[in-house]
Amino acid sequence: MSKIVTIGSCSTDMFFYTSKLPNPGQTIHGKQFTLDFGGKGANQCIAAQKLGADTVFIGCVGSDIFGRDIISNFERWGVDTQFITKKSVDTGVAQINVTDNGENYIIIVAGANSTLQKGDVERAYDLLLKETSVVLFQFETPLETTEYILNKLSTANSKCCKIVNGAPAYSNSHQNILKLADIFCVNESEAEIYTNCIKKIDSIESANEVLSLLLKQGCKIVIITLGSLGAVFASKDEREPQWVQVPKIENPVDTSGAGDAFLGSLAYFIVHTPNLSLYEQIRRACIIATKTVQFQGTQKSYPLKHDLPEELFN
After folding, report:
1. Is 120 a catalytic residue?
2. Is 41 exposed, middle or buried (0-12, 13-18, 19+ CB in 10 A)?
3. Burial level of 7, CB count in 10 A (0-12/13-18/19+)?
4. How far apart are CA 288 and CA 207, in angstroms?
5. What are the start-end ranges of the E strands in 39-103?
6. What single string gives the DSSP state of each residue in 239-282?
7. 109-148 pLDDT, tens per residue?
8. CA–CA separation, 157 and 101 (whole Å)
9. What are phi and psi of 203, to 5 degrees?
């Protein structure tokens, strides 16, 4: 039982690099255009795979060239693709606008990702039951499917760690999902939405307050990622918040996909360094995420294990 399974989204990412965003009705010149593979689920899967994890991806693509290329990319990195379902719709796409300060503004069109049904995932039921140590979920696929699989895993494979990334955020999401997750992870803006914007996160102290609000909703462990400030986390058993700091990157190039790199790395460390504390696992995942913001793109910015310091894996 050492596999990391991602049940989620995959897409083609279209990056537009620009000095600034246009105003309504305005046309501006961009600096660069690139294509990359993306989708929060695919990103998290590839991040773990590039560290050396044994990964499986469960999701949907369209019967088009984008879908074929996505499957080929997974296979190139060694991801098990036998549970990717082809649908008679378009593959998901994302338009990602990146400004000079590295900030990103994203529009996604779910396409085939919105067609992921219970039956598509149940094809992998034996794998999920007998061989899986961590399952990663996101909210770019139907929440009904996510909740159904979380319920089944909670009873059939209680040893499996279920990580739910509540992104994109929904103000009225299925509350039961938060309770079924072993780890619920969001960034600061998403955390605000899940707590009805009662508190704006503008400091570590306010992030800690929002942590407490999420725990009151029934979460077992909550992690809030804070970009350059690292992350804070707490659990229902250890409610005192802990702050994980990371080295500051002075001039980030592109922050797209850094949160996904964090989650894929965290899944890797949960499986491969089980004797480490959760604090240390989060710290190491944060370090890897900060590496990615120094390069353009999503998956292509994720480091391979041999490109990282050995002490991260001791």
Report:
1. no
2. buried
3. buried
4. 22
5. 55-62, 84-87, 92-98
6. -S-EEE--PPPSS-S--TTHHHHHHHHHHHHHHH-TTS-HHHHH
7. 999 999 999 999 999 999 999 999 999 999 999 999 999 9
8. 44
9. -165, 170
Extract the tokens encoding 10.
Answer: 């995959």
pLDDT of the residue at 173: 64
Q: What is the dihedral of CA 60, 66, 68, 71, to 10 degrees?
A: -60
Angle, helix 40-50 to helix 258-272, in steps of 10 degrees: 50
Nearest 10 degrees: CA dihedral of 101, 39, 161, 180? 100
Q: Please count the residues of the chain.
A: 314
- Give the mean pLDDT per block of 10 residues along the chain (314 residues): 93 92 92 93 98 98 96 98 97 91 85 97 95 97 96 91 95 85 96 90 94 95 95 96 90 87 98 97 96 90 95 93
Amino acid at residue number 203: S
Which residue is it, tokens 């990319």? 73
Three-state DSSP class for residue 106: strand
Burial label for 28, CB within 10 Å (0-12, 13-18, 19+), is: exposed
Contact indicator for 3, 131 with CB cutoff of 8 Å: yes
- Single out the catalytic residue among 13, 36, 80, 260: 260
The two tokens of residue 277 are: 């504390």
Please give the pLDDT value at position 7: 98
- Residue among 210, 163, 39, 59 nearest 121 (CA): 59
Contact 161, 37 (CB under 8 A): no
Beta strands, E only, the chain: 3-7, 11-17, 32-38, 55-62, 84-87, 92-98, 104-109, 132-138, 161-165, 183-187, 221-225, 231-235, 242-244
d(CA 78, CA 124): 18
DSSP-assigned letters across all residues of 117-129? -HHHHHTTHHHHH
* CA 252 distance to own-chain centroid: 19
